[in-house]
Design a protein that fits this description.
The protein is of the alpha/beta class and about 180 residues long. About 35% of the residues lie in helices and about 25% in strands.
Length: about 180
């Protein structure tokens, strides 16, 4: 994991040092607040963030960008429920990757606490790269948006995979349980 206030290039160096492409992001109290991938850091997100600061890319350097500025917050995660994964076949997981357009899929289990509140427990994380290696295939991750209109359409329509769960607005749709 990495602190949200870590500079992005330091986070990337940490990924390289441990041989990972994804880190969980925590706040100062070590609560899970998001995740960041090497693709986030090496892609266009840093440039878009710099541009959002004052409209100019060249007026700031990458040194000002912290993980929290470009991470994927917990509230935006699309997750798989552990109970569905237990019954899933490999093909179901591959199809979910294709449908979601994501390279990583989080698996959560919801356990009731003594207070009666349902708390999510991270049970695992599927990586498209590991599936591709294990199956000796490359599968096309779909749902790449080329315009804002296409992006809005894809966000407003649910995916068809029976495994796919969304926690938009912090609600687990199948169980109604809160996340985040």
């Amino acid at each position: 994991s990495v602190l949200a206030t870590t500079q992005i290039d330091a986070a990337l160096q940490q990924m390289i040092a441990v041989g990972l492409r994804l880190l969980f992001v925590t706040d100062a109290s070590f609560r899970l607040v998001g995740l960041i991938t090497s693709y986030d850091i090496a892609g266009e997100k840093p440039l878009l963030y710099l541009q959002s600061i004052d409209g100019h890319i060249n007026s700031h350097s990458r040194d000002v960008i912290q993980v929290q500025h470009i991470m994927q917050p917990v509230s935006t995660w699309r997750v798989l429920e552990y109970a569905a994964v237990e019954r899933a076949k490999v093909g179901d997981i591959v199809e979910t990757f294709k449908q979601s357009g994501q390279r990583h899929l989080m698996v959560l289990q919801y356990d009731d606490t003594p207070s009666g509140r349902s708390e999510p427990l991270v049970r695992g994380l599927f990586s498209a790269r590991q599936f591709e290696r294990a199956l000796d295939i490359t599968f096309d991750i779909g749902h790449r948006s080329d315009s804002f209109a296409e992006l809005e359409r894809s966000l407003n329509h649910p995916l068809q995979s029976p495994l796919f769960e969304s926690n938009s607005q912090h609600t687990h749709h199948r169980t109604g349980r809160k996340w985040g």
